[in-house]
Structure formats: structure tokens, C-alpha cells
Write a structure and sequence with these properties.
Blueprint lengths: L6 E2 L3 E15 L4 E3 L4 E2 L3 E18 L9 E5 L5 E3 L3 H15 L8 E8 L10 H17 L4 H6 L4 H11 L3 H4 L4 E5 L8 E6 L7 E6 L9 H7 L6 H20 L3 H20 L10 H15 L6 E3 L7 E4 L4 H11 L4 E6 L20 E3 L1
Parallel strand pairs: 6-8
Antiparallel strand pairs: 1-2, 2-5, 3-4, 5-8, 5-9, 6-7, 9-10, 11-13, 11-14, 12-13, 14-15
Bound molecules: ligand DP6.
Length: 370
């Protein structure tokens, strides 16, 4: 079992953090301020459990601090590659170091090793779990802490971590917390709030992530956000979102899956309508996704199961259903789409930085199919 007790050698201390991905039910799409990741609208998400990023951070205390963080993405037990977006990550780390300074030494360069519990080529957005895990690992390493209680004693709460993770990638702020999380834009960048609004225990749901298309996405979410306001549909979308979010929160509160399902399908299709009518336009999915969602809706209408889909900035649908129906829904999906794979995920409890955690178990947990 791999433990998270900081491992010390003469000049090095290692801490390990893990953060889950999250699936937005009401989407963050479009920014009012791109540098600060101030969203154009409020969003609400469900934190996942098995689709996670695991990041270890080691301070090289005898290394010069400037510009020498080393980042590697582990693709297997033995193989590491350089992280794709080194520059963005390094810029974020230097910004984070300045935020952390009042709470701890924040001295020394970091060696970061990061890997995902889900297959890296499957097109699931990893920036939410990636920046959430990076924020927690770097904060713990720079403040010499090894769990959330110690961070709390220094005056660093989950709200701080969430706010910091947001600067790396907007959706990462929701992955720090567990259950259902609401990100409110507030009236200015400084009045944003990220709140866990319903706990995991309130309503555990299953999310079957169906991998029907593993191609890498051609337009990053960050680029897509920047195009959102070129769509003639964007302002129409924003004018109705407050009401939809209220209805979504009520459906979660009342554990009304049919109501929630109807809302999330309309919401994800509307976001993709904005994407497809932006200039230049972005098509995040093709015929495989269209066939899948039309099959899902027909099967549901025939009474074969109770399951609803949502889509992020990619082609792979997330299918939400009750945990007791999950095995049957998954079997039907794999039977009808034999070349797909399913990640069997569920509502989860947010970022972890704890000594008892066995990080190894997440690889490749909950992954069924081909
Ligand atoms: C479609 O958080 O990836 O998943 O802030 O530029 O890093 P940046 O964008 P990102 O956008 C996520 C968009 C989405 C919807 C959502 O998660 O709310």
C-alpha cells in the first residue's frame, strides 16, 4: 500500500494528493474575464469518485527556485512523459506560490509527477481533476502539511484551495468539494463563491461515462470559452440559465431523477448549440454521439430503462442513473455499442490529502469494456 506520509530524504519531502473529475449539470461555458476565470454564468456539478488525477509533489529544497519546477505525466508504472501544457502549468504554479506565501515558506522548486486513473487517450476532460490535484499537492508541499486538518490550522480551507484551483482551470474549483457543488459568479471576480450544496449522502447517483470516440479534441475548452460570445445564441442562453439552475437545484434537493434528467439533456444540447454556432464554430461530437443519444432517448421512451445523458466539451456521453439500475443500463449500453467502453463512476467526496489513502487502487478502477 502506498502511503501519503511525507517521505523525507536529506533534501526532499514528498506529499501526494488526489482529486476527482466532476460532471457539470448546469455548464460553465463562456467567461466574463478570461485571466481570472470569471464565468459568464453560475454552474452546478456532481463530483465524481473514480475518474481522478493523482499528483505527488516533492520539494527540491537545495534547487534554485526560479522556473525550475519539473513536471511529468505518468502513462504507466514505468513510463513518464512531459506534461502537455508545461507553460500554463508553470505560470499557474508561480501565481500559486505567491498566494501561499502568507501561509508558509513556499520555498523551493517542485518535482511533480501526475497520472490519471482513467485512460489518458479517452477524451475525458482532465483539467478539472488535474488542476485540483496540482493545487492541493503544491499547497501541501510548500506549507509542509500532510492533511486537510493541518492546512486548516494554517488558515487554508477548502474554500481557499477551490478559489486557487479555479485560476488554473475554472472547472477545477468544483472538484475540491464533494457531492453537488455550485459555483456562483457573483457581481465581480472577487465575489465568486464555490459551495458544496448537497452532500454525497444526500443523493448518490451513478455516472456511466461511455467512451464511444477516443479522438483528442481539436479545440481546447479554453479556446471554446473565448468563442462563446460570438454565437447569436449565447445571450438567449444566459437569459434563461438562472431559472434552469434553480430548477436543477430543486430536482437534486427532491432527488427527482426524471426532472433532473430532462434539465441536463436540454442544458448540454443548448451548450453544444452555442459551440456549433460560434465563430469559428466548434463541433465537439459527430455521428457516433448523435447515434448514441438518439438510441438512449428511444430506449428510455420505450420504458427499457431510466437514464439520462449530459455531454461536456467532448464526444463521450455521461449517462446518469440510479445505482440500483446501473448494472443493467451498462450491460445494455455495451450490448448495443460493443466497441465502446464504460467507466462506472458515481457521486464522490472531493480532493484528498491523507496518509491512509491507497492511491494505487484507482488505476484503472471502474473501467469496463474494451
Ligand atoms: C464544458 O474548466 O476546462 O466542461 O477554465 O478554460 O480551463 P478553463 O475551462 P474548463 O471548461 C469546462 C467546460 C465544460 C463545462 C463545465 O465543466 O462546467
Amino acid at each position: 500500500m502506498v502511503k501519503n506520509t511525507p517521505q523525507q530524504t536529506e533534501n526532499e519531502t514528498t506529499v501526494r494528493a488526489t482529486a476527482p473529475s466532476n460532471i457539470a449539470l448546469i455548464k460553465y461555458w463562456g467567461k466574463s474575464d478570461a485571466t481570472l476565470n470569471w464565468p459568464a454564468n453560475d454552474s452546478i456539478s456532481m463530483t465524481l469518485s473514480r475518474a481522478r488525477t493523482i499528483t505527488s509533489a516533492t520539494i527540491r529544497s537545495n534547487a534554485p527556485a526560479e522556473n525550475c519546477h519539473r513536471l511529468a505525466f505518468r502513462t504507466s508504472a514505468t513510463k513518464s512523459i512531459a506534461v502537455r501544457d508545461q507553460e500554463k502549468t508553470t505560470r499557474f504554479l508561480e501565481w500559486l506560490r505567491r498566494e501561499i506565501k502568507p501561509y508558509g515558506s513556499a520555498e523551493g522548486a517542485l518535482d511533480l509527477l501526475t497520472y490519471n486513473s482513467f485512460p489518458s487517450s479517452c477524451g475525458i476532460a482532465s483539467s478539472a481533476s488535474g488542476f485540483a490535484a496540482l493545487t492541493v499537492a503544491a499547497t501541501a508541499a510548500w506549507t509542509g502539511t500532510k492533511n486537510f486538518a493541518e492546512l486548516h490550522d494554517l488558515g487554508i480551507s477548502r474554500a481557499h484551495l477551490s478559489d486557487w484551483a479555479r485560476r488554473g482551470s475554472g472547472s477545477a474549483c468544483r472538484s475540491i468539494h464533494g457531492g453537488f457543488v455550485q459555483w456562483e459568479r457573483g457581481h465581480s471576480p472577487n465575489t465568486q463563491k464555490i459551495n458544496p450544496v448537497f452532500s454525497v449522502e444526500h443523493w448518490p447517483l451513478t455516472d456511466l461515462i461511455v467512451l464511444i470516440d477516443r479522438g483528442a479534441k481539436s479545440t481546447s475548452s479554453t479556446e471554446g470559452h473565448a468563442r462563446a460570445f460570438t454565437s447569436p445564441l449565447m445571450n438567449v442562453r444566459l437569459s434563461g440559465l438562472g431559472e434552469r439552475l434553480k430548477n436543477c437545484a430543486q430536482a437534486i434537493e427532491g432527488r427527482d431523477l426524471e426532472r433532473l434528467g430532462t434539465i441536463i439533456e436540454a442544458e448540454s444540447i443548448e451548450m453544444h448549440a452555442v459551440m456549433m454556432t460560434s465563430n469559428p464554430r466548434t463541433d465537439y461530437f459527430g455521428s457516433a454521439t448523435i447515434n448514441f443519444i438518439s438510441w438512449l432517448r428511444k430506449s428510455r421512451a420505450k420504458g427499457e430503462f431510466s437514464a439520462w445523458f449530459t455531454l461536456d466539451a467532448g464526444p463521450n456521453p455521461h449517462v446518469l442513473c440510479r445505482p440500483e439500475d446501473a448494472a443493467a443500463v451498462k450491460a445494455t449500453i455495451l450490448q448495443n455499442f460493443p466497441s465502446s467502453s464504460v467507466i462506472h463512476d458515481q457521486t464522490g467526496s472531493g480532493a484528498i490529502l491523507e496518509s491512509e489513502q491507497n492511491f494505487g487502487e484507482f488505476i484503472p478502477g471502474g473501467f469496463d469494456g474494451h
